[in-house]
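Hello,

Our lab assistant flagged a job as stuck in the queue for most of the afternoon. It eventually completed. Since we weren't sure the result was trustworthy after the delay, we are filing this so someone can double-check. Below is the sequence as submitted and the structure that was eventually returned. Let us know if re-running is recommended.
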Amino acid sequence: MRSHILLVLVLLAVCFAGVRRPAAAQAEFGGLGGVTFADITGDDAQEDLDRTVGFLAGAFGRFQLGQIIAFQPEAQFVRKGAEGDFAGGEAAVKLAYIDIPLFLSFGLPSMTAFHVLLGPTFSFEVGCTVDIDTALGDCDGDCDDEDEFDDERKSFVAGATVGVGLDLPLGGLNAFLDGCFNIDLESFAEAEDTDIKNQVFQIVAGLRFPLGG
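-- returned structure --
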């Protein structure tokens, strides 16, 4: 886990080292929140799983690299997982992650209100619960109550995120609305022969504020 955190910090340092000192108007920070529609995919995922609805919340910085390109690192708390049928009822796996997307944001010269987001995402698991609702009764539990469950999942997973967004000036506020798709690039199962990945569609809204302004 420590090596993965160090890797992310090194990548952030490299990215920041390449960013020239911007004027206050070119550097921004902000907060964001949104809705997630998550499921689990992969060769070993159950075929009839349904999406589960969750949420995300976080903060970000934005640093202008050129006229239409910006570097946008983010930190998000994100709900992931999936739902499915179980013993005549329903079961839901609810995973919680701290996601660190490192976006390049590209403006579109002919449509200045639109932007495209693209970059790697580093996910650190911070929680997992299983909810089972059947005719025989309900069961809610922490995945980590038993050691074997904890050992079956990786604490760190690398992924990628792409998205499109719209800038929404609201009076003196710089608001935005993004639609993003995030998918793991590796299985989050610890076993080498098991292929299961998170994939999440996100609707995100937020506000940007100038740094030093």
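-- support follow-up --
The delay was a queue issue, not a problem with the job. The result is valid. The beta strands are 27-41, 52-64, 69-86, 89-108, 111-134, 137-142, 156-170, 173-184, 197-210. DSSP finds two helices and nine strands in the chain.
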